[in-house]
Amino acid sequence: MGRDWSSELVGCIKGADRVAANALLTDWAETRSYEEAVTELLTPALELFGGLWADQGGETSLAQGYVAAKIAEDLLGRILVVREAEGRSLEAKHGPVVIGNVEDDYHPLGRNMLVAFLRSAGWEVYDLGVDVPPEVFLDKVQEVGARVLGASAMMFSTARNVAGIRQEIDRRGLTGRVQLAVGGPCSSCGRSSSRPSGGMARRPRRSTPRRSSSSSGSAPWPCTRQPTRRPVMNSLERVFATVGGQPKDRPAFVLNLSLYGSKLAGHPLQTHYSTASAYAEGQMAVREVFGPDLLLSPFLVPALGEAFGSEVTAYRQQVPNIRRYAAASAAEALKLPLPDIDGQPRLVFLRETIRLLAARYQGEVPVVGVLVSPLDLPPLVIGVEAWLEALLSEPDTARALLERWTPFCVDLANAMLGDGATLVALTANFANPTLVPPRVVQGLARPVLEAALGAIQGPIILLHGGAVLAPHLAGYLGLPNVAAYFVDARDSLAQARQALGDAGVLIGNLHAPALEDETPESVRTQCEAILADRVGDPRFLFGSSGADIPLATPPEVIQAVVDTLCQAGAGAL
């Protein structure tokens, strides 16, 4: 029986083993050619891998997709070398196609992977890079005569910018002649029946009243909570009762209103994310208007990258994001000086917000310090692609970087606790099999997490970080100091609770970025379904999952969430 080359190549991809895959392709090409390898080996293998991805509901790992793209890229490079040696050029068989990240989007990994796949399949690709305005897309489309335009949007907020591309296509009279293909996680986000089917319509912006410094404390929007009962617990007591699995007067809840606080306090985002007193005022307004049981330090992980030298781009309607990384590789990052947690301006800003909130709400409302684990700090300094490359191909360098940066992360977490944070919340994405293969999880990620979390001197919330967590929760059990697990909106709460058992607080599961397109009625229905799912679970804490609740979210939608939880009362869980 002959050797099943395609299945072997798929096995290399599933194992995220780029070296073995390239060796396999070399062996195959010795008796044929690299060009034949594309059509007779690589393409069938990628089709087989794609079928597995579809059958598993997209639950293959990011590392597997990355390695598949790199294999295609490596093979194309070898073909180019051979052709150049023979005095031949590589002629495209399909296309042209124009591709890029939409305006304001600086996440290149998915686009880079697609470009590698398209080029290996013979497409003529014009890659415009990141942060591409609609007019630049269409100028290139008309210049090269492309019939296909690929737009990558890796964030819910930037996915809305696809609408501008569609409008520019229509404006130039190219409707029906240029096909717009949209990619990225948000292109397949589930949508409720209350949202437009195209998913790109914007709700008209509302004027937002600025809070006066002389305000008597009244909320800028009316509070519609029914005054049928007086609270018998404060938020700190309610959260601690949840941790202990004890009765409480109503479900405890946390909403990611870190961004939304700027709207309530009337501060521009640049001030909100640079002046600790302005941010704290925003969270105080959040507490006054909506009354969540936990308040957050800035949900601003790019600030950690800034502390190492990465550069960010500021926006008027969303959280700042990294546009240029401080280093190009893990080896380069090893040479960077460690930021001073007591003097680096961005770190001082994060910590001062905690001091201000803790001073205001001591003994009343828990304050959460938001961070990343050592595993998730490198992507903020060198980018996801470079960090994946280090984890998969340069494990010694990756280990050395983690050994150097883990004490910094621990010291910063403990400093936040010392500043008054009740607990810290951090991501551990690169310990998740959705992102990296088991050899990385077990050989590197898990030991690093155990050491880091064990050195943090307070309770920890483990954040999903945008990756599904429930199917993999068993792998996180036993980590020191973890008191709660905050799951993704796509996760099954029942599955997560089954994995956790009776111990451990489970937090979720309302999809925050989608709230701006909801109505009070639709969001109330969602909240009631979540509460019904968790009846009899005394360690469930209701939370908005994902990124920040958008600024455009009508306040009455957020209030509908609050009303549903307040009216549920003690019997809800």
Brief sketch in words of this structure:
With 573 residues, this protein is an alpha/beta fold. 46% of the residues lie in helices and 12% in strands. It is globular.
Give the fraction of residues assigned to helices.
40-55%
Shape summary? globular
Strand content: 5-15%
* CATH classification, class level of the largest domain: Alpha Beta
Tally of distinct domains = 2
Distance between the termini: 60 Å
Account of the 3D structure:
- The chain is α/β, with parallel strands linked by helices and 573 residues long.
- The protein folds into 2 domains: 1-90, Methyltransferase, Methionine Synthase (B12-binding Domains), Chain A, domain 1 (Orthogonal Bundle), CATH 1.10.1240; 235-571, TIM Barrel (Alpha-Beta Barrel).
- Helix content is 46%, strand content 12%.
- The chain has 22 helices and 14 strands.
- The protein has helices at 5-14, 18-30, 34-55, 62-85, 109-120, 134-144, 156-159, 162-171, 235-244, 260-265, 269-272, 276-290, 302-308, 330-333, 345-361, 378-381, 384-393, 395-419, 438-455, 493-500, 520-533, 555-568, and strands spanning 94-101, 123-127, 148-152, 179-183, 253-254, 295-296, 311-313, 321-324, 367-372, 423-427, 460-463, 482-486, 505-511, 540-545.
- Helix 3 packs antiparallel against helix 4.
- Mean pLDDT is 87; it is low at 189-229.
Keywords:
573 residues; Methyltransferase, Methionine Synthase (B12-binding Domains), Chain A, domain 1; TIM Barrel; 2 domains; eight-stranded parallel sheet; globular
